[in-house]
Amino acid sequence: MSGVRPGPPASRGGTASRGSGIRGGTGARPGGARGANRAPGEERALTSVAAGDRFRGEEPEHTPRLWHVTLSVSGARAPLTEVRRALEQLAHDHPFLLTSRYADDHAEIRYWEEARDLHDAAAVALRLWGEHRQTAGLPPWEIVGLEVIDRATYHQRIAAGYGPAPATPVGVHPF
Fold it and tell me: How far is CA 140 from CA 52, 73, 77, 103, 175, in A?
């Protein structure tokens, strides 16, 4: 038995498939009876709190922050000229990229991202390679590393003489 019940999917605007709701229970929720009128066997939609959401009484942070992102990718060997050309195209399409280093089987991209919180900066970084793979002609490599640090941490590391070296020189360079 697949565990999928007939009827509409139990998601809230996502791409979840049927059967993604929680089974059982009375349908009552803390603080009210919302969902208590659910038909027997009907699944309850999952709810969650998105990263960065605030509780009552907390002041919203309206100003985005700067995050230093280092994205590492790796995969099967590709011609160096094609890797360089693809990274240069990515830098042309997205001038926020500070520096890219590459070899025939891996690359590292560094840039500053403006985002509300670390969760948002990391989400953008994790989509970067895949979303631009075709438009920039990037190799079909997978993301193997991600570091996202705030501006203060980046500068503390540099001042202490450890952490990622400053993005010098800016541009696309071999390892």
Answer: 32, 9, 10, 14, 19
- Is the pTM value of this prediction over 0.85? no
What the block records as the tokens of 44 is 């309850």
- The two structure tokens encoding residue 102: 């590459």
Q: How far apart are CA 172 and CA 87, in angstroms?
A: 7
Contact by Cβ (8 Å): 110, 99: yes
Closest of 130, 131, 132, 127 to residue 86, by C-alpha: 132
Tell me the per-residue pLDDT of 15-36, one tens digit each, with 9 for 90 and over. Answer: 443 333 333 444 444 444 444 4
Q: Which residues, 6 or more positions from 5, have their beta carbon under 8 angstroms from its beta carbon? A: 18, 19, 41, 42, 43
